[in-house]
Write a structure and sequence with these properties.
This protein is mainly alpha-helical. It contains 4 helices and 2 strands; from the N terminus they run βαααβα.
């Protein structure tokens, strides 16, 4: 898993990752829940429920790692949000956090694809 990026900017975290996680959560709870409720096929319902569980588990893991990043870099994030652009806005990610950020992008694409299907 060495292909994961080891850093990201505060802007990427605030403007891309967090809003996408919020969108993923809404899409999971609305779109997949609706598909589960409206299907007549027990097989399709089970498949969608399994899909929803997998997405929710991945989302939980990603959110836990986002929380880790924000705790470790709280002062940098706070300064950036308060308009201090003079300091570095680069956040160093540990291996798990880096994987989670990659997974966030992948999950976003997967959920978008499923809502179009």
């Amino acid at each position: 898993m060495s292909s994961s990026r080891t850093q990201m900017t505060v802007s990427e975290l605030n403007d891309e990752i967090v809003p996408r996680l919020d969108l993923i959560e809404r899409l999971i709870s609305t779109t997949l829940a609706s598909l589960i409720e409206t299907t007549d096929s027990a097989e399709e319902r089970e498949r969608r429920e399994d899909q929803k569980r997998r997405f929710e588990l991945m989302l939980l893991s990603i959110r836990m790692n986002v929380a880790s990043v924000t705790r470790r870099h709280a002062s940098v994030i706070r300064a950036f949000q308060n308009g201090d652009r003079a300091g570095s806005s680069i956040l160093q990610l540990d291996e798990n956090e880096a994987i989670a950020m990659d997974n966030a992008k992948t999950l976003y694409e997967q959920v978008k694809a499923h809502t179009r299907a």
